[in-house]
Amino acid sequence: MINITLPDGSVKQFEKGTTSFQIAQSISEGLARNVLAAEVNGQIWDSSRPIETDASIRLLTWNDTEGKATFWHSSAHLMAEALEALYPGTKFGIGPAIETGFYYDVDFGDREFSSDDFKQIEDKMLELARKKSEFLRKPVSKQDAQTYFTDKGDEYKLDLIKDLADGSITLYSQGDFTDLCRGPHIPNTGFIKAVKLTNVAGAYWRGDESRKQLTRIYGVTFPKQSELADYLKMIEEAKKRDHRKLGKELELFAFSERVGMGLPLWLPKGAALRERLVNFLQRAQMKSGYEPVITPHIGHKNLYITSGHYEKYGADSFQPIKTPQEGEEFLLKPMNCPHHCEIYRTKPRSYKDLPLRFAEFGTVYRYEQSGELHGLTRVRGFTQDDAHLFCRPDQVKDEFKKVVDLVLYVFGALGFENFTAQVSLRDKENRAKYIGSEENWELAETAIIEAAAEKNLPTVVEYGEAAFYGPKLDFMVKDALGRKWQLGTIQVDYNLPERFELEYTGSDNAKHRPVMIHRAPFGSLERFVAVLIEHCAGNFPLWLTPEQFIVLPISEKYEDYAKKVLESLNNSDIRGLIDLRDEKIGRKIRDAEVKKIPYMLIIGEKEMAEGVVSLRKHGEGDLGSMKAEEFKNKLITEITV
RNA sequence: GCCGAUGUAGCUCAGCGGUAGAGCACUUCCUUGGUAAGGAAGAGGUCAUGGGUUCAAGUCCCAUCAUUGGCUCCA
């Protein structure tokens, strides 16, 4: 007999070799029917796998993240089975579960494949699912695995097996399909009741640009048809929040082929919004001891040779601007830091001057790959809310923490609660892509890790995500469609001060090297606005929104009074407009609602007679009437919250 | 940059070999209307661009550009 410990701490005895499915059965048949897999001593196992020793187990169902992952991973196998049945000779790469759904990278050889083929595959998958084929686990030797896939002619699987240790290799089969797989899987394909292939894309084998590109098919499956319907509905909702769609509808920004791809044009309303963000941050920075600086949009090529950016990115950037002077070259600035370093160098600095905090809303230009451009989130010209802090080594951690506070303040003011702080460190293996001494990197990485810990940030560590000159703390936020974007960033840099030979005189009267912190709470205004749009679905906080209210006269007769009301309200802090079109009030209200204008002031016979306005709030409806002055105070109170 | 998809009126889209369409927006006129679309008329397009096939090309083929979903990249 073996002792099985359940999550509630209770211990039950079972025969040796009992499966977690049987354990579930002993609890309830209903549970057993829903068990997809089980966590056995911290590892996820098939629910049909015999347990031979004492163990603590957790039964996994659709309600568990791991249960879903198992379900989707098995769905990837089901899709592979369908693909093999439909297109014999297809070779398979990898087919993992992802956050929502799964994908499989496959090689169709010469066969052209597009989303038009989805229907056929979905149908085949459902057909195979109905067979309720069991997923059978089979441990094999490395030799046998290699023989199997050599016979099958699947070089990708062989490539994978090459790196696996003998004795750890398992194959899984369901129906006529066998795959190299660590598992685990759901009991049988019959659990999969709803299938939707979502998109098709190219993906390099093993993520390596120099290797062959496979076809990646994404899909998602559910144990109930209704869950698929819910999912599709959710996707529709998310699309409504897409900043590219809302940016057009709300007339915030635009792009023009003539201006150039990836170069955003801010329309009046978008510019008003952006201006408010800038003012907001500027005030916060003033309070925190930042000093505004301004630098030009271009810089001499030598500046970037000094900084190291030219060597690293020169070939893939906008190419140098020539002048009538032979051999003279300037670059559009891709970064503000070299300029700021030169500002630091304008006079001798004392340890008493530090930290120095130079802030600039600096517009930079980077030649992003054409396939990378995406709305406002990935562009070729953008404005960073940049600042560079020059401090003594003993001030680094404190300054870093102050920046964290500023970022949190900014996020808080704008309602971003679901972010993660990503500690971006060097690649563990490939250190050649970074510049600077081992010692300085150690110092910088330690400073970030400690500061993040002391601030209790929800942190994830990512290796290989550091900038080439130093580690970063990146604040990551998801967009409406679940894609992750980096917003704020804080970076510790020991290298640029060295390259620019920055110095200060210490209390010992000797020269010392300052440490630089690069930081941008928004990251870029473009990306920030994009994520903000999706976050609030275009319903901006009152203080930010381009138009806070609109005056709607019921007919021409009340125009003069309406105009007077507007005049009495508009000032530098609050902004509204008036709808003088020859339309009925219902129409004016509808249009204002569609434009997501927070407040509507309706003015007719009654209001004019009583000297009041009728107030209607976007998305909520009629709020009754009040004096214009009262509304003004209400607005001001709401804005200053 | 790579793989796939898309490009028709300001916007959203239909048309897929035989004389360019709809809804909304826009202009003019009628209407002066009380909390999410009042009515009528009008104007608006070398069907992304350049080649090719055809008696005939938004419609089929090729290339280019742009957009888009991913991949790679992201100072």
Name the features.
641 residues, alpha+beta, Ubiquitin-like (UB roll), Threonyl-tRNA Synthetase, Chain A, domain 2, BirA Bifunctional Protein, domain 2, 4 domains, five-stranded mixed β-sheet, 35 strands, 26% strand, RNA-binding
Which SSEs are present, and which pair or pack?
Layout: E1 2-5, E2 11-14, E3 18-19, H1 20-27, H2 29-34, E4 37-40, E5 43-45, E6 50-51, E7 55-60, H3 65-86, E8 91-92, E9 97-98, E10 101-107, H4 118-129, E11 136-139, H5 142-152, H6 155-162, E12 170-174, E13 177-180, E14 194-204, E15 213-222, H7 225-241, H8 243-249, E16 253-254, E17 265-266, H9 268-287, E18 291-292, E19 298-300, H10 301-307, H11 309-313, E20 321-322, E21 329-332, H12 337-344, E22 356-365, E23 381-391, H13 396-413, E24 419-425, H14 438-454, E25 459-463, E26 472-478, E27 484-493, H15 495-499, E28 504-505, E29 511-512, E30 515-520, H16 525-536, E31 549-553, H17 559-569, E32 576-578, H18 585-594, E33 599-603, H19 605-610, E34 613-617, E35 621-626, H20 628-639
Parallel strand pairs: 1-7, 18-22, 24-25, 31-32, 31-33
Antiparallel strand pairs: 1-2, 3-6, 4-5, 4-7, 8-10, 9-10, 10-15, 11-12, 12-13, 14-15, 16-17, 19-21, 20-21, 22-23, 23-30, 24-26, 26-27, 27-30, 28-29, 33-34, 34-35
This protein binds one RNA strand of 75 nucleotides through strand 14, strand 15, helix 8, helix 11 and helix 18.
